[in-house]
Amino acid sequence: LVTAVDHVGIAVSDFDAATTWYRDALGFDNVHEEINEEQGVREAMLAPAGAPDGSAMVQILAPLSDTSTIAKFIDKNGPGLQQMAVRVTDIDAVMAHLAAHDIRVLYPEPKKGTAHSRINFVHPKDAGGVLLELVEPAGTH
Ligand code: V0V
């Protein structure tokens, strides 16, 4: 049901500085950008130039406001790695599987994620201290 590590998410306060750094220092391409009001983020998906389709990406996450989960994360920890996301083929089935193992997911139903994906999160306290995102890409089924 889990097919890949989809992306890692980095909390940043300066969106442009972060995307420029990945481009100039490491040659990442900016493959997608959007604002997700519900999640309180401006985000970009960056892929290593020349990487095959489906390769793991870096997601830059900048807060839209002081109340954003990303603003809260940066206040507490400073900028840095905020989440790891795994790609799934059927998020509802994965949520049911986790619930059956008493692993807490944050939302009772998936929410809208990047590029019309469906997303949910495993609580970091139930995932070894890692905020683990589940992402079912659009058009998966
Ligand atoms: C909090 N904790 C973390 C953490 N955030 N541990 C690891 N990684 C993180 N990112 C720890 C924190 O240190 C506490 O541990 C404990 O969890 C509870 O933290 P809290 O401060 O009480 O709780 P909050 O209010 O910070 O909330 C934490 C959660 C929140 C995870 C519930 O950040 C959340 O709802 N996240 C899901 C949504 C999200 O992250 N959206 C932005 C990305 P101690 O101190 O008690 O030991 S949007 C996105 O990824 C999109 C759109 C996409 O990919 O498509």
Overall CATH architecture? Roll
What is the CATH class designation?
Alpha Beta
N-to-C order of helices and strands = EHEEEHEHEEE
Small molecules held by this entry: ligand V0V
Helix proportion of residues, in percent? 10-25%
The rounded distance between the terminal residues' Cα atoms is 13 Å
The gyration radius over C-alpha positions equals 15 Å
Question: What topology emerges from the helices and strands here?
Answer:
Blueprint: E1 2-11, H1 15-26, E2 28-36, E3 41-48, E4 57-63, H2 69-77, E5 80-88, H3 91-100, E6 111-112, E7 118-122, E8 132-136
Parallel strand pairs: 1-4, 5-8
Antiparallel strand pairs: 1-5, 2-3, 3-4, 6-7, 7-8
This protein binds ligand V0V.
Question: Any overview of this molecule?
Answer:
By secondary structure, this protein is of the alpha+beta class. The protein has a single domain (2-136), classed as 2,3-Dihydroxybiphenyl 1,2-Dioxygenase, domain 1 (Roll). The chain is 22% helix and 39% strand. The protein is built from three helices and eight strands. It has helices at 15-26, 69-77, 91-100, and strands at 2-11, 28-36, 41-48, 57-63, 80-88, 111-112, 118-122, 132-136. The protein has an eight-stranded mixed sheet with strand order 2-3-4-1-5-8-7-6. Strand 3 and strand 4 form a beta hairpin. It is globular, with a radius of gyration of 15 Å. The mean pLDDT is 97. Ligand V0V binds next to strand 3, strand 4, helix 2, strand 5 and strand 7.
